[in-house]
Specification:
It comes from Paracoccus cavernae. This protein is mainly beta and about 90 residues long. The chain has one helix at about 40-50; strands at about 5-15, 20-25, 35-40, 55-60, 70-75, 80-85. The radius of gyration is 21 Å and the shape is elongated.
C-alpha cells in the first residue's frame, strides 16, 4: 500500500502470528553534494540556473569573499550542488 508522502506501508506476521505493519521511506540523494568549478562566470551562472529550475535555491548565485560567483542549490531530484567560478573580474 502506498502512502501519500512516499512511504510504503507493508504488513507481515511475526513468529507468534501477530500482524505487524511497518513503513519504509523512499529517499532521494540524502547526503550527496556535488561541487562544480568553472573558469567563466557566465557559464557558471547558466549552469546554476539550470540546476535550480524546479528545485530550491539555498544561497543565490553571487559574489563571495572567496569567489566572484558562487551559489548552492538543490535540484528537482534532491541532489545538492555548489556552483562556483574562479574567474576574477
Amino acid at each position: 500500500m502506498d502512502h501519500p508522502r512516499g512511504a510504503e506501508i507493508t504488513r507481515r506476521h511475526d513468529p507468534d502470528g501477530r500482524r505487524q505493519a511497518r513503513t519504509t521511506r523512499r529517499r532521494t540523494a540524502i547526503g550527496v553534494s556535488v561541487a562544480l568549478r568553472f573558469g567563466d562566470i557566465d557559464e557558471a551562472r547558466a549552469v546554476f540556473e539550470q540546476l535550480s529550475d524546479g528545485g530550491a535555491v539555498a544561497s543565490p548565485f553571487g559574489a563571495t569573499f572567496y569567489s566572484p560567483g558562487c551559489g548552492t542549490t538543490r535540484d528537482r531530484y534532491g541532489t545538492s550542488w555548489l556552483v562556483m567560478t574562479t574567474e576574477s573580474r
